[in-house]
Every structure is written in C-alpha cells, then in structure tokens.
Amino acid sequence: MELIGDLPARPLDPAACFNQHGDPSDDGVSARSFRGPVAVVLPAGGCGERMGLSTPKQFCKLLDRPLISYTIHAFERIKWIEAVIVVVAEQHVELMKSIIQKYNHEKTQWCVGGLTRHRSIFNGLSVFVDDKFMECHLTKPKVVIIHDAVRPFVNEDILLKIATAANDHGCTEYDFEYGTECLHLVLSYCNTQAKLIEGPPTLWKVTYKQDLFAAESLIKETLSQNVCVITDVDQEALQLGHCLKKMLMTQHMDVEVISAEYGKKKLCIPHVSSQESYNIIIIGNTELQEKQEVIDVIANSSMTLLYPMVLILVYISLPESTPFSKKLDEPSAIRRLAKEAKHRNILVYGLLVNYTKDSEELNESLENMCFISKSLMKDRNSALTGQLLVV
Amino acid sequence: MELIGDLPARPLDPAACFNQHGDPSDDGVSARSFRGPVAVVLPAGGCGERMGLSTPKQFCKLLDRPLISYTIHAFERIKWIEAVIVVVAEQHVELMKSIIQKYNHEKTQWCVGGLTRHRSIFNGLSVFVDDKFMECHLTKPKVVIIHDAVRPFVNEDILLKIATAANDHGCTEYDFEYGTECLHLVLSYCNTQAKLIEGPPTLWKVTYKQDLFAAESLIKETLSQNVCVITDVDQEALQLGHCLKKMLMTQHMDVEVISAEYGKKKLCIPHVSSQESYNIIIIGNTELQEKQEVIDVIANSSMTLLYPMVLILVYISLPESTPFSKKLDEPSAIRRLAKEAKHRNILVYGLLVNYTKDSEELNESLENMCFISKSLMKDRNSALTGQLLVV
C-alpha cells in the first residue's frame, strides 16, 4: 500500500479513532488528523491468470460476495475516507456497477483502467479532476491512498500509522532501495513526499487459489467471534442460556445473553445490529410465528447486506410427562422457514437439546450444544440450513 | 527447496513414475533415474514466533494431524526416497518421536538441531554417517534433498523436475543472484553442482495463521475429489446411487458406484482403500449391524491412519404404506454408532431421503442429497457426526 499526498496535522474527531472492534485506539496515532479529504484508488484491472480460475481474483466470491466488495467495504467503513475509486478493465464495467449497487457501496465510483498498472492508477486519479466528481459534491482530496484491490484485510490502524509515519519521517534512502514500483514513480516524478511502511501479515495479497481459501477462513473466523443469545423467560431456557454463555466464553467468544418474553424477541434485533454481531441463538420452544418475526426484522435491517447471518433455534426437549414438549415445531416447518430465510442471507439451523435431570447427561448435552453451535457459526454452511440437529 | 548431490542418469522403475493421482507422468521426466539412494532432510526447529500461536507451526494440527506429518508423508509415499531425517529442537524431541510412532512414519528418523538453520541442516546430514544409520541397513544416500518442514504440498513431479533440471543445466549466474541462502552456501563451499528451480504455487511456506487455514482447505479439497458409493440391491437404492453419481460428477468428483447384497458391503472396503478414496456413501435401509461391520473393516485397515474417513449412511424413507420404511435405524442408534466411530477417525453422518413418486419433488430431494453430501465430504466437520440430516 502506498500513501500519496498531504500529511496529518491537527486532532481528528474521536469517533474516527475507533478501530474495527470498536475499541479506542491507544497507540498514539489516534490524536492525529488530515488537513483535507482522503480518498482511495483501488486498481482492479487484473485478469487473474495466476489463479488458474476463469474469474479474475478480485471478482471471486467469498461467502457469496466478490472479494472486491470486501476491500471496498474496508475503506468505506472508515469515516474519514470520503471516496473510493475502483479502476476496472472495460469488460468488467457492468459487473462492477452491479456490485456497487447490490452491496450499496455509496462512497464508491468506478473508471476504466489502462494497459498498465500505472496507467490505471493515473486514470483513477483523473476522476478527482472530473466534472462528474465535482457534481457529486465531493471535494478534491488532499490525500489519496493507492491500494491493491486484492488485499481485503486493511484496517484503520494501519492507515493511520501510514499517515503518521509519513508526517514524522519524510523519505529515506531505505525506501529508495526497497520500495515498490509505485513508490519509485512518485518519488521520481512528483513533488510529493512518500514513505514505505511495513504492513501487518493480514494485509497479504490474494494471488493463488489457496489465498482465497485463507481469506474466506479469516472472514469466517472474524464473524464467529461474538454472538447474541436471546432466551425465553422460563427456567430451562434461562439455564441453558447461562450455561451456553459460560461454555462459549471458554472458546474465546464474546457472548451476550438477553431474555425476552414471547413476542418481544424481535425488539432485541436493533441491539444485535448495533453490536455488529452476525450470530443469534434463540433458546426456547416459543412458536414458529415469533421466529418468523425475528427473521423478518433481521431481513429488513441492513445487517445481511454484507455477511450471511447465522440464526440457531434451540429447542428444549423435556421428559414426556411435561406438556411443554408438545410445543416443538415440526422439523418440516423449520425446513420451510430456513429455505425462505436463506434467500434473505439468513442461515437458520435447528438444535434440539434433551433436557434431563441427570446432571452428567445434561452436561454432555450442553457441551455438545456448545460444540455444534460454535461449528455452525464458524462454518456458515448453507447446505445444512433447515436441519434439526440433536444434541 | 534445494537439491544437493548427484544427478539422475539411467531409467527408473516405471512404478515410481506415477504422480500423486496415480496417472503416468507424461512430461518427459519419468524416464530418468538416480544412480543411488535418495534421502531428505527436513529442518523443523522453528519456534513459530511469526504465527502468533503458542504451538510452532510445524506442529500445528490440520484435520487433527500435525503439519510436519503431512510433509513427512509427502516424501515417504515416493518409492525412490529411502530415508527422511527430521531436525527438531531439543524440547520437541519427545513430541516428534510420538508423531513418528503414531502416524507410522517408517522411513523417518529424527535428530536434534543447532542454533542456526545451517547448523541444523549439518546435523541432519551427519545422521547419514552415523553408525546407527548403518545399523538400520540404510545406504549412505547419493542425493539429499533439503526441504522446509512447513511446505507440506510437495509432489513427485517437482522432485523429478528438480533432479532432471540439475542434470541438464548445471549452475547459472541467475541462481547466484536470486538463490536462497542455502544455495549460496552449497555453491561457495561444496564441490557439488546445485541449481535453483521455481516450484509450483502449492509449494508455498506455511508462515502465518492464514496459511494454516489455506493448507487445511487445500487438504480438504483434495480429499473430497473422489467417492465410492455402495448401494443395496433393491430398485430404489440402485436408482439413488445412479442419480447421485450423475450429480456429483457434474461437481467434478470422481464417483464409483458398487452394488452389494446384505452382508457383502464390507467386502468392498479393500477396493475403496486401493482407490485411495476417503469418502464412502452407503445407500439403503439395511440393518445397523451391516454398517457396524463396514466401520470395523475400515478401522482395521490402515486407511484412517492419516486422514479422517467420511461415511455417509443414506436412508430411504418410502411412503408409509410400504413396510420397508420400518427398517430405518433409530436416530439415537446412529448417534451411538457415530460417536464410537469418531474415536477411530471415521466421521459418520446419516441422510434421510424422502422417496416419492412425484418426479419434481424427488428431483429436489436428490439435488439436496448431492449438495449436502458434497458439503459433508468437503467440510469433514467432526461436530456434526451422528446427525440424521433430512433432504
């Protein structure tokens, strides 16, 4: 990644200093800012011949969304970045337009690239002096970040570090020796300061098929780090929620448990959304109608636009003497519900827990419930939605 | 990877010219050979500080087996390689010994490394002049391949290519400029020819956490490329087997269908083993006893030593009027069977197909069966064994 342009000078809005996990940055870079708007150019004109795949790698899908959309989103979510320009080959313009529209990339525009990477970057930079750019009420940026479209894991920390280092150090001889091509060009031909910064390992470039596997696994791992558990208010559901929290926390997950009466579970969804959690576990034998309402609220929020949501419905099977067990939904009804939800990017799985008074048996059931839930959240396997799994 | 030593000269036993998929090599390297024994030294003394994990990367587990064992096996399976020496740090000797024993690495010995990579390689090479080495009736090798322990995806083709190229080209100035450290040392201090060969992308080094994800996905992909389907002899089972084959083949899988009477299915396992297939689908409502017998035969073969076997039991649910459906095993019996099989590295899943005369409904069921089966074979998810999935 290279940074071309102006340097940070005065304090930034603290809201922009939060990193991807929502924690305040504490490494000293947060108190800096840029003197003007920041924009990004993503050269994405490659044809992917090294992948051994027919689709260029920037358009390969991870969890059913093209790689380029992940890179765009990584920049769009940063408040102080005003515009993203994606440079694509002529034959991919329509595809790129559909991606921008489908995933609601509001800060993003596209332009057509040239025969070389540098020509493409030039075309990307040219957008900023275009009349159309002004028409969108965007200001000519003071800082432009040039970033490979196939490095999706960029975060705010590294961008701030780059800007800060450029401010503190200027250029050095070291960069001249070990810099990338782009850095050379900037230093040779532009009246601008530039510096090479070492990125984190996660900033690696998706080049081969194994990199796509790695990228998808990293995304899945990130998505499976936190979960909201919404329980019914009866004793068994509350107990199960409590135990599940304890067990999932030993697996290094962030778990929040909320209890809600019948009809009120859908009211918890805005909170889940604010937590950026893509996993919900509902515990309790309340009717299918309530679960359908929860699915409707999730689908009508913007939560499932970028990532598939996992929704696990935990049913409690009590000893037969208790009339409660009659309330269990039919497996075929869960399958129908899940089939429809999958079209809305919500992966629904059922989980039936045998609730016994035998504490050893119950404990084994609970451990299984934890193991299976964790695995469903991590794998996001769309082939298994609608199944009623038994623990 | 570097090759140190002698050069190929006369024709080799044709059996050694088959690549990993069992096809005859046709790239011209197959008709060459080595004048003496070939051995391998695997420096594996790293402490994995770049991974951000407590376990050094060569001991990290992929599908529950340490990475180093995959690299060892990649060499051991090549007939013309006689010995593998793994060089480990003092504190990992016991772990390494247990790995060699557990995975039955018969060609492999270990030695303790030194403070630097080169000292470790020296220690590895020293084993060949050790009395103990002679005691094992091993001949001092003519060729020694030095290979990073954390590059598990090495195949016979590249090794033969390296040897051939060394024979044809000798050394060049280019290698001096771009070679690795080891190559420099060999060229500077040894009276030996050496050459740098470009490896395939799959030969990449496992360095960061995302590389472990990628490696596991590649292994899973390779394991899910072929399957043996064993069907009952009744009409419905035969039809399902036929349809499944057709569908899985469109997913680029190699599928073999065998039909076998009750009690005879276990006799198919030696054939499955000879095909190096790690996936078996049994179609038919025959009793659990027969399935247990199949599991016993698999467990007593050496098939599950290196990779988990996937065994999918497909049950056929016929309209209620047919007494046949009464033969279905209890879900809890499948769970018990699967729990015991998991300890033997066999992942058992149940799949219940609703067999109807309505051709549209049946087709949807069959597509689902194909989708779920493919996914189970690809994911090898141990959390879901014993579940009876419904399609």
Automatic annotation (TrEMBL), chains A, B:
Record's GO cellular component terms: cytosol
Annotated signal peptide: none
Top EC group: transferase
Domain D-ribitol-5-phosphate cytidylyltransferase C-terminal: 225-368
Localization per record: Cytoplasm, Cytosol
Catalytic activity: D-ribitol 5-phosphate + CTP + H(+) = CDP-L-ribitol + diphosphate; D-ribose 5-phosphate + CTP + H(+) = CDP-D-ribose + diphosphate; D-ribulose 5-phosphate + CTP + H(+) = CDP-D-ribulose + diphosphate
GO biological process: isoprenoid biosynthetic process; protein O-linked glycosylation via mannose
InterPro entries tied to this protein: IspD/TarI (IPR034683), ISPD_C (IPR040635), ISPD_synthase_CS (IPR018294), Nucleotide-diphossugar_trans (IPR029044)
A Pfam family hit: ISPD_C
EC number: 2.7.7.40
Pathway field: Protein modification; protein glycosylation
Main location: cytoplasm
GO terms, molecular function: D-ribitol-5-phosphate cytidylyltransferase activity
Annotated PROSITE patterns: ISPD
Keywords recorded for this protein, A-Z: Cytoplasm, Nucleotidyltransferase, Transferase
UniProt family annotation: Belongs to the IspD/TarI cytidylyltransferase family. IspD subfamily.
PANTHER family registered for this protein in UniProt: D-RIBITOL-5-PHOSPHATE CYTIDYLYLTRANSFERASE
Task performed by this protein: Cytidylyltransferase required for protein O-linked mannosylation. Catalyzes the formation of CDP-ribitol nucleotide sugar from D-ribitol 5-phosphate. CDP-ribitol is a substrate of FKTN during the biosynthesis of the phosphorylated O-mannosyl trisaccharide (N-acetylgalactosamine-beta-3-N-acetylglucosamine-beta-4-(phosphate-6-)mannose), a carbohydrate structure present in alpha-dystroglycan (DAG1), which is required for binding laminin G-like domain-containing extracellular proteins with high affinity.
Subunit architecture: Homodimer.
Name of the protein: D-ribitol-5-phosphate cytidylyltransferase
Phylogenetic lineage: Eukaryota, Metazoa, Chordata, Craniata, Vertebrata
